[in-house]
Amino acid sequence: RLCELLDLDALAIALAGGEDYAIVATGSASRRPRGARVIGRIEKGRGIRVEDGDGRFRAAPSGFDHFYLH
Fold first, then answer.
1. In 1-70, which ranges are E strands?
2. What CA–CA distance (Å, rounded) separates 41 from 43?
3. Of the N and C termini of the chain, which has fewer Cβ atoms inside 10 Å?
């Protein structure tokens, strides 16, 4: 809701906003740690795409750059 009020892209903030709230990893389902959640999938191809809540795909933003002067 805050992103709507400030006219910000919530997905971009979540993916590259500079705060890390969880560790993301890939691996087989049989080796998944207890409590881990599936949040996506790995597919053959190039690049990183993100599927939004409406089922649309777009290029994932790059990671946060701590040395970039805003």
1. 49-51, 57-59
2. 6
3. C
Distance CA(18)–CA(64), nearest Å, equals 5
Long-range CB contact pairs, 24-30, < 8 A, 24+: none
Q: Name the token pair of 39.
A: 């949040």
Using left for φ > 0, alpha for ψ between -120 and 50, and beta otherwise, residue 68 falls in beta
Q: How far is Cα 37 from Cα 47, in angstroms, rounded to an integer?
A: 23
**pLDDT of res. 70:** 64
Could you tell me which residues come within 8 angstroms of residue 48 by beta carbon, excluding any fewer than 6 positions away? 59, 60
